[in-house]
Amino acid sequence: MAERGHKIVRASNSAVYPGVRLDRTLIVTDDYILDTFRTISDEVHTYDYAMHLSGALAQPGTGRRVRLGNARGYKLLTDIKQLAIHAPVTTIPCSVAGGAWEAALYAPGGTAIFSAHDPVPAKPMFNEYEVRAPLTCLVARRRARQTVFITCWSPSSASQRCRLTVTAADPAGIVSLAVGNTKTGTQRWRLPFVPAATLECTGSR
Question: Which DSSP category does 75 fall into?
Answer without folding.
Answer: G
